[in-house]
Amino acid sequence: MTALPPGMPAAPTEMQTILLIEDDAGDAFLVEELLAGTATPPKIIWARSLAESRERLTDEVQCVVVDLSLPDATGLDALHQVIAMAPDTAVLVLTGLDDAHVGVEAVAVGAQDYLVKQDVDERLLARAISYAIERKRADLAQRKLVDAQRLSHENARLEHGLLPVPLMRQALSSDGFLHQARYLPGRRQALLAGDFWDTVQTPDGALHVVIGDVCGHGPDEAALGVALRIAWRTLVLAGHTGGDLLATLDRVLRHERKSPEIFTTMCTVMIDADLSHARLHVVGHPPPLFVRGGVREGVLGAVPGAPSGPPLGIFSDIDWAAIDLPLGDDWALLLYTDGLIEATVGGGPDLLGTEGLMRLIREHGEIDLDRIITSVQEMHRDALSDDLAAVLVARRAK
């Protein structure tokens, strides 16, 4: 018989539900009598065989107490069947004096504990059942933690591999041009999401930027986001822009998505080679923030005229309107996904929102992605639950 370790749980304060699998009516009666004398007698469901226990097992059962000498299974074979039948339920094995060694083997293959029938008394049986239940809960919690850590590590590897490498000429830096991009995965659920971004400069010198968000979280959405990003890059390099490009991406989305409910918001920007004019399409996406002449003395606000139309994947035969934006010599455009503005303020129910983001930028006196994201995380007071992608393109006056 296994010894009860220090710290053994006390008698339960609320009623437990036990499934007793025992073909001997006398032994079953003994177990019921012993448990009936406890401070909080459990509810006992009695089954005489494994076949009968399968019919009587319910979600309310917290512990299976099983004799390994049953009419339809014996020994460790019986235990394996019980564990397969109730993988998330504690299992306590009852043995006789002649096969106590089987109890040790039973613990080794998955039972939480074992007792020798001839040595059982009221206190020992009740505490052994409580211990088995608590040990199973701890095992399940540890398993969930390990699974979450493994998923988090795999997601981190995938996310790193899914991020793009911008295609830009180095000469842009000599024109006072600035490009920053950040991607921060949400970690509360440790799930991949469909946020994506990319930047490409075409041979004519024009700069193309995209940011998008596939609805939902998970590997399917992340894969769809990558498919759309690569399709966008390919189309841009092939010379497609504007409504023609968006219509093609809409068709790609409809063919690649797993269900018709999935849609994608997106914002595309094409900046002329001389960095003085931009053309945007805001496709059901949060409009970019635009700064002209500096944050402190110039103009800061959302790009006027947005949105250009609904998200991709909802309506057919849509014409997304272009938004023309004169830039000037000193400007900045901040594109972002809703993970940035849907962070809470002070851990309460209020969201940051576009207005809150603009206040934050004014406080900093400039748009610096790292400082903005750090401030948003501090206001949220917790790991962001949604993925966050942001791209900043700017031109500083000489």
Structure description:
The protein is α+β, with helices and mostly antiparallel strands. It has helices at about 25-35, 50-55, 75-85, 100-110, 120-160, 220-235, 240-255, 355-365, 370-380; strands at about 15-20, 45, 65, 70, 75, 90-95, 115, 175-185, 195-200, 205-215, 265-270, 275-285, 290, 300, 325, 330-335, 390-395. It folds into two domains: about 15-140, 3-Layer(aba) Sandwich (Rossmann fold), CATH 3.40.50; about 165-395, Phosphatase 2c, domain 1 (4-Layer Sandwich), CATH 3.60.40.10. The chain is built from nine helices and 17 strands. A hairpin with a 6-residue loop joins strand 13 (about 290) and strand 14 (about 300). Helix 6 (about 220-235) runs antiparallel to helix 7. The longest helix is centred in the middle third of the chain and has 41 residues, at about 120-160. The chain is elongated. The relative contact order is 0.10. Mean pLDDT is about 85; it is low at about 1-15.
Topology:
Elements: E1 17-21, H1 25-36, E2 43-47, H2 50-56, E3 63-67, E4 69-70, E5 73-74, H3 75-85, E6 90-95, H4 100-108, E7 113-116, H5 122-162, E8 177-184, E9 193-201, E10 207-217, H6 219-237, H7 242-256, E11 264-271, E12 277-283, E13 289-292, E14 299-302, E15 323-326, E16 331-336, H8 353-364, H9 369-380, E17 388-395
Helix pairs in contact: 1-5, 6-7
